[in-house]
Amino acid sequence: MVLVSATPYFPAQARAAMAQLSVDSFSDADWSAQRLRHVHGDDQIRMLFEQMRGLKDHHDDMAFTPPLLSTITARTLLVHGDRDPLYPVELALEMYRAIPQSALWVVPNGGHGPIFGPLAAPFVDAALAHLRRSG
Questions:
Q1: By C-alpha distance, which of 69, 82, 80, 72 is closest to 105?
Q2: CA separation for the pair 77, 104 (Å, rounded)
């Protein structure tokens, strides 16, 4: 399994950011960037942002405690930017410590979703190497 910018729960800064989510304020550059990541059109982009905004008020949606994470049996690669504004790197460390057979790649100067742009190719290489590894 490969998890990118994952979190065991939504911290306060993520909920505050979710409250601000709106495609209404997108610039042309924002739309272009989103269209590169979400290839099923503008309706998909709008739906994804509406879903994320709606999660801000749900506090029972995600509560992956260390004991629960410790039950994961899949080899897991966690990829996390050390400058993620939504999920502090400490949350990735919490998951890494709790999930058996996990590996952690902290991307220096990486934000949320640090697998795009110049890091896309290294991410693909690392993810494939992880998934191909046996045992």
A1: 80
A2: 6
